[in-house]
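Try it yourself: sequence plus magnesium ion, in.
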Amino acid sequence: MKVVYKKPEVLKNINFHFCPGCQHGLVHKIIAEAIDNFGIKDRCLAVIGVGCGVFLYDYFDVDSLEAPHGRGLAVATGVKRARPERIVFTYQGDGDLAAIGLAETVHAANRGENVSVFFVNNTIYGMTGGQMAPTTLLGQITTTSPYGREFQREGYPIRMAEMLATLEGVAFSARVALCTPKQLMDAKKAVKKAFQMQIEGLGFSFVEILSSCPTNWNMQSLDAIKRVEEEMIPFFPLGIYKERRVSDVL
Amino acid sequence: MEKLFLRGSESLALGAIDASLKFYAGYPITPQNDIPEFLSKELPKVGGKFVQAESEVAKINMLLGASACGIRVMTSSSSPGISLMQEGISYLAGSELPAVIVNVMRWGPGLGGIGASQGDYHQATKGGGHGDYFVPVFAPYSAQEMYDLIIKAFDVADEYRTPAMILVDVMISLMKEKVLRRYDKGIKVKEKKWAFGSKKEGDQKIIKSLYLKGNDLERHNWKLYEKYQKMCQKEVLYEAYLCDDAEIILIGFGMIARIGKSAVDLARERGIKAGLFRPISLIPFPERELENLSTKCENFLVVEMNTGQMVHDIKRVVGKDHNIGFYGKPSSYAPNPEELYLKIKEYLEK
Ligand SMILES: Cc1ncc(C[n+]2csc(CCOP(=O)(O)OP(=O)(O)O)c2C)c(N)n1
Ligand code: SF4
Ligand SMILES: [Mg+2]
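Structure, out:
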């Protein structure tokens, strides 16, 4: 008999706590599969941002360090400088990475810190109950933009994958989604690529993952997935924005 | 043991290297710039890493990451930069991660000024960051103590798994003096089993400060408190100079103690039996020692380069029935020995 599907080995036998229909769980799974793929479970060190993903260490059997809200990439810088042999990744939300932690993110990227970043963009502050994030779409109603986000008042949603791709220190920057089998395959490839870049020492690798938050969007699970496709992807186009090759740095 | 002639800041940085510092993150701010400048040159020579961060917020978190990996980490800054790091210091305390933070104080509040100050006593000793924790604080008063106390701070930080602080003023930091380099062969640091090293199968390490379940947090906070209690038993440092027969005791820390010693000598020459008490560890505070003195001496004169901060701790310990005078100098101009002598005389005549 051939095994065609199994739970990634790096994941413990514990159920996720995420709300029904939340894609954080799927993001966990594709990261776990990539870790299995490279056989780097014991080399991995997770730096975890504050948001709905904060309990990552409960599910992953990897060494884990909790960062203060937004400071993931400063913490990861310290870890990687101290232990360059470890495979260091951060797991951060859009409030964490693109609002309070923007400076740490941009500067770690610009220094070309050899770490991988998994950035879960759900256009909202999930953990604190659905407030407006820097990624919140125009017109989107949140608990702190009750009239809908308006650019004259709140500015525009921020596109991180494109922004970081402009920096010399960045080896890889991509945006993916998880709504269709094709998107899922591309997402898996991008996550693997991010680890690959780090293993080869090419520099900062960044994967933005568009993700649903049915709870704070006040939507049914399937409607939330539809929203990612119909509203998020048009503003946050999927694709690889930068990919460095070994020959680029030789 | 090498004998050197060093600025306080160099002495401190050299002490850090001898204490086996392996990671330093800095950000420019006057008047502590000579510390990162020295370490950017010297640290890489001994296999340490130097990073210039984008902000104090970032650098304290870089320390958090590197410290979790079990190496000795440090940063230095001046007052506004220390304010920015308070969240990180709270996280270090909560996550039980050792780190050494040096504050070469300048004037505040706000941008304040860059001259010698002791305005951050409250911030350093009464928390600064959020939550229920204590950070050990040491106040050097010579170039030699800059060397000795930075080493002490690293040892205490490791022993208790806590951030530790050096609180110093710019005069001590810039003054050039003789320094005995006691550990010129370096200090060997014990391996930290709790830290991220190379992971073994099935041995997951989690370093965090979030405790949501049941009364985990309560237990955690009592554990932090017990560490503080232990420090109070074992880590108190102070100097009592000519206090035994003193009719008046001057109290000050850092450079005020240095100047105070000369003032006490002057007073003795002129027939006043003065003494000096100086806390060297501000946390843990030398409470018992001060209490003992208060049974022998009635008169205390507290001198600080601020409008009165440590004096509140002295009043708390010594009690209201004592005569506690205060002379504050919230300006960049430190008092000279003659000035302090006059204050002693004035106080006794009152
Ligand atoms: C300094 C600080 N400010 C605010 C918070 C409160 N807080 C906790 S999680 C969070 C943001 C969560 O949003 P996001 O990063 O987008 O993650 P999500 O939950 O949406 O995955 C905030 C603001 C905090 N913990 N620390
Ligand atoms: S609040 Fe949103 S992001 Fe958080 S677990 Fe629930 S659905 Fe997911
Ligand atoms: Mg979010």
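One thing you can check immediately is this: Chain B touches chain A through 41 residues (CB under 8 Å).
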